Amino acid sequence: MANQLHEEGKFKYIERGEGTPVIVLHGLMGGLSNFDGVTSFFPEKGYKILIPELPIYTMSLLKTNVKNFAKYVAEFIDYKGFDQVILLGNSLGGHIGLLCTKLYPEKVKALVITGSSGLYESAMGESYPKRGDYDYIQKKAENVFYDPAVATKEIVDEVYASVNDRNKLIRTLAIAKSAIRHNMAKDLPKMKTPTCIIWGKNDNVTPPEVATEFHELLPDSDLYWIDKCGHAAMMEHPDEFNDLLYAWLQNRNF
Hints:
- The protein is built from nine helices and eight strands.
- By secondary structure, the chain is an alpha/beta fold.
- The protein has an eight-stranded mixed β-sheet, with helices on both faces.
- The protein starts with a strand and ends with a helix.
C-alpha cells in the first residue's frame, strides 16, 4: 500500500492511523519503506505511526550532525502538537532517538532502538561504503542482512547512487564523524526513559554485544533478540519485530 508523503513547511512525513503517536526514525541508508511492516501493523492496534523524512542530505553541511537531527525531531513533535511520543529508531535513527530522549526527556514516553549506533564506533563509516564498484557495494549491502537476498537490486542501486553522489557522500562522512563524537556511553545511565531494545542476533554492523551494553547501561530497558537476523530487524523479520514490540508496549501500558 503506497503511503502518501505529507509536505508541510520544512517537514515531509508519512502518517497512518489514530492513537498513541509513534515516530519512526530511519537510518542513513534507510528509506521510509523499510518500515512498511510497522506502518501496516500498528495503526490497527491503536497507534498513530509517523515517519518523518530526516533532513540528512538537505541541511546545510555545518548543521549536518546528530544533535541537529535530534532537534529536528523535537520540532516535529511540537509541530504536530503532541505532548509525548514513542520514538522508534533503526541504526542512525536509533542514535537520533537516544539523543532526542536525552535532550528532551519530557517529550519522550518510551524509546525503541534496533541496530542503533551511539556506542559502537565502527557502526559508522565501515557500514556506509565509500565510493566503490557495484560488486563491492552489493557485498556491503548484503552484509547488512542475515539473508543476503533481502538486499534487493533496488536497495543496492540506491546505496550505489548515494555513495557516488558527492553531496551525499560528504554529508554521510560528516554524520559518521558526528555520530562518533556523540558517543552515548556516559549519558545512558542517567536516561530513565523506558527503552525496548530489539536486536538481530547476526547483526554484523552493530554486533550483539552492543545491544547487551545498551541494556546494561540504560536503567529501564528490556532486550529482545531475533534469530537469523542482521542489522535491520523490522525489514528482515517484520512480523516477529512487530509482535515483540507490541507485547512490550502492552506490558508497559503504552
